[in-house]
Amino acid sequence: MDLAQIFLNNQLWIEQKLKTDANFFTNLSQGQSPKVLYIGCSDSRVTAEELMGTKPGEVFVHRNIANMVPNTDLSAMSVINYAVSHLKVNHIVVCGHYYCNGVKAAMQSADMGILNPWLRNIRDVYRLHKAELDSITGEEAKYKRLVELNVQEQCVNIIKTSDVQNAYKDRDFTVHGWVFDIHTGKLIDLKIDFDNILKEIMEIYRII
C-alpha cells in the first residue's frame, strides 16, 4: 500500500462526512458514550466497526492476537476497567474468527519465540477441552472448534474481573461470545450463558 494514498483517502473521507453532516467532527469531539466493548483479533481481515456496521462513538474496541483476555495483560484489563467502570458499557463482546492464525499457531508444536507465552494461553484452552477436541477427526473442524472454545474461555476470563462482577450487580449487563466467519462474512452468536457461568465460577472467583 502506498502510504501517501492513506492521506488522500483521509481527505476524501473528511469531505464525505462533512457533505452529509456539517457538524460531524464537532459532534464527534464532544465525547463518547458507547454501550458495547468489542474485544477482537488484530487480524487485518477482521475490522470491528465495518463487520458490525457501527458508527464512530458506538463501540469501544480492543484488539490483539487471537482476541485474548489473560488476567496478566494489563492492556486488556485496563480497557475492561475503563469501558465498564467509566464509560459504563452494558455489553462486552469477545469476537473470534475462523482461520485465525494465532489459534492455528497454538495448535502447532513449534517454537514461536516471543509469541510463546501468549500462545500458551490458547494451548491452555486446548488442555481444558482436550477430550472434546481430540474426539474431532477433521483438522479444520478441530481448528474451528478451538476458535469457538477460545472465545468462550475469554468470556469466562472477563466474568472473573471485579469490574464485570460489580457491573452485573449494579445494572443490566452481559458478556457475549461471537465468531466471524471469513468465508461467509456472517457473525455467529455462540450464545454464551453469562448468568450460568457467573454462578458456576463465583465460588472460586467471587471478588465483590
Distance between the termini: 49 Å
How many helical stretches?
Answer: 10
Helix/strand-derived category reads: alpha/beta
Report the top-level CATH class. Answer: Alpha Beta
Q: Tell me about the biggest sheet?
A: 5 strands, mixed
Stretches with pLDDT under 50, minimum 5 residues: none
Number of domains: 1
Report the principal-axis shape. Answer: globular
The portion of residues forming beta strands comes to 5-15%
Provide a concise account of the structure shown.
This protein has 208 residues and is an alpha/beta fold. It has ten helices and five strands; from the N terminus they run ααβαβαβαααααββα.
SSE map:
Blueprint: H1 3-20, H2 24-28, E1 36-41, H3 48-52, E2 59-64, H4 74-86, E3 91-97, H5 101-106, H6 116-128, H7 130-134, H8 139-159, H9 162-170, E4 174-180, E5 187-189, H10 194-205
Task: Report what the structure shows.
- It is a single chain.
- By secondary structure, the chain is α/β, with parallel strands linked by helices.
- It has a single domain (43-205), classed as Beta-carbonic Anhydrase, Chain A.
- Helices cover 51% and strands 14% of the residues.
- It has helices at 3-20, 24-28, 48-52, 74-86, 101-106, 116-128, 130-134, 139-159, 162-170, 194-205, and strands at residues 36-41, 59-64, 91-97, 174-180, 187-189.
- The chain has a 5-stranded mixed β-sheet with strand order 2-1-3-4-5.
- Strand 4 (174-180) and strand 5 (187-189) form a beta hairpin.
- The mean pLDDT is 93.
